[in-house]
Input
Amino acid sequence: MFTLRPYQEQAVSNVIAAIKRGIRRIIIRAGTGAGKTVIASRIIHGSQAKGKRVLFLAHRAELIFQCSQKLHDMDVHHGIIMGTYPQSVTAKVHIASVSTLVNRQYPDPDIIIIDECHHARARSYEKIIARYPKALLIGLTATPARLDGKGLDTLFDEIVDVGSYTDLIEAGYLVPFRIFEPTQIDFKGVDTCAGDFNKKQAHERLAKSKIYGDAIEQWQKLAKDRSTILFAACVADSKRFVDSFRAIGVVADHVDGTTKPEARKKIFDDFRAGRTQVLCNVGVATEGTDLPIASCISLCNPTKSLVLHHQMVGRGLRINPGKTDCLILDHVGNHGRLGWIDDEILWTLDCQKKAVNKTKSEATTPIRTCPKCYYCMRGGTNVCERCGHEFKVKSRELEKVDAELKEATRSGAPKTYTPHKDELTFLAEKMIIARNKSYWPGWAMVQFKMVFGRYPTLSNEDVKIRIMELEMEGR
Output
């Protein structure tokens, strides 16, 4: 048995409270890296103790084995229903592949938990759900909407929200991020297909852009020492990127939906172990992919889907020893269209409405680029936050630098984390934060270990004195 984080415990309590109010179809919305599977495992553990039969649905082998490991950690006896995998006849808890279970019979479950439930409108899911109308239905997702952004009220009745990205970053459960982006790419005239850009037309538009062609050069300049996940628009592009990385001596690999399970597992394992530095993929390393070593996300896949945008960017925010932040290299202008991952999103269950980026919709000024140093900003400032250049109000022309990404910022954005050379100051600052925000005891120690690779050996007296000094300085 392992200890849940405070917000995870609160999520379990909120789900129980909703059930007591008579809600039978609930979505647990938790951002990438917040631990949706851990929350579900605790619910399953409690249900098993009461003799309940639980069915956990997932659409990919990685998700199935990830949940299985969490249940093992909680000593929950369970079986797996997937292809020719040996099936347990004694277990009351089963983790099932949707594609397998849709063609099999299963005793009526008391609870059905659906991982990545934004897929649950698919016919295979709905067919399974319809078999068990009396079951309590719990969905797990970071993005409770279909690809086109519309809600899921035909299946669910309530959303239980589990902390914001801002809260999780400030508490140290996710890492801060920095965004580098180009001047906006024009996708006007590109058709929409299934709620997103027509991939063929988008690829043709990108192929004419120097920004897209310089993805390798920009990575060398900004992130050459980082484990990187690159999202490509098509298989041909992904493989081309792999060839380009290998040509400069970088170990890179490619994975897509047609990669066989054994090969896919090896590719992911090599990346997790650091044997592969760059993982190029098409539509695979998104939802449910646990790759905390990644500290750079390279976006070479344009999208107008808020759901896909969050799924891609979120891959880089998980904490990992020695990891202090995540660089997001946005070569296709997704942030300009859809906003930042920690923006306030108004998710809705209404299938006639789309999720809304409240922060972006309320912005009074667009993102603007400094014509002197090309720093990108959002907000009402008339002075560049980086170089001090004063914008001329009458001038609307901004210099375009197609071949280079520049760092973006905005008013009210989380501060970019810079590792402290002074260990004493670092620990003192974290202890002040922990006290002010009522974080759990030991949080500051864990933050120290994440950065310096070990727990602090500083004397308590020295830390107390440094805390007093910082407070006198107003920090």
Q: What stands out?
A: Residues 6-20 form the longest helix (15 residues). Residues 103 and 307 are 29 Å apart (CA to CA). Confidence is low (pLDDT under 50) at residues 207-213, 393-403, 411-420.
